[in-house]
Specification:
This protein is α+β, with helices and mostly antiparallel strands. Helix content is 39%, strand content 30%. The strands form 2 sheets. Strands 1-5-4 form a 3-stranded antiparallel sheet. It has a two-stranded antiparallel ribbon with strand order 2-3.
Length: 120
């Protein structure tokens, strides 16, 4: 059975949170690998926004599937393959709790959005 989650976030909102809370925000929401992947990018706020939206979309899909109620944003890791394709790792779930998770991330200069599909 497939479950869907989607999310959209205003990039300006993430920018304001980042400016106000800086490293505290990063460490609370993102893994070390995610931070390392994004921190030196020219438009890091756009990439952080995409990852943030992705985490929300994955969480919504997990909730729809009635698994992962104790999963928090930092437990959901959004990484990229060499070709840039995003993939998901969930720290507190066993791989046998789902078949696969597919993720699509998009953004404009104002919004970042993500859709997650989870096959259980």
């Amino acid at each position: 059975m497939i479950f869907v989650g989607n999310d959209i976030v205003e990039i300006d909102r993430i920018q304001k949170i980042f400016i106000k809370f800086d490293n505290h925000f990063l460490k609370k929401i993102f893994s070390d690998a995610e931070i390392k992947n994004v921190i030196n990018k020219k438009n890091k706020i756009i990439h952080l926004s995409g990852k943030f939206s992705s985490k929300e979309a994955v969480k919504k899909a997990l909730c729809s599937a009635m698994i992962g109620s104790n999963i928090f944003p930092k437990d959901i890791e959004i990484l990229n393959k060499e070709n840039g394709e995003p993939y998901v790792r969930i720290m507190k779930l066993n791989k046998n709790e789902y078949k696969y998770i597919s993720l699509s991330i998009s953004h404009t200069s104002k919004h970042a959005t993500a859709i997650a599909l989870i096959d259980i």
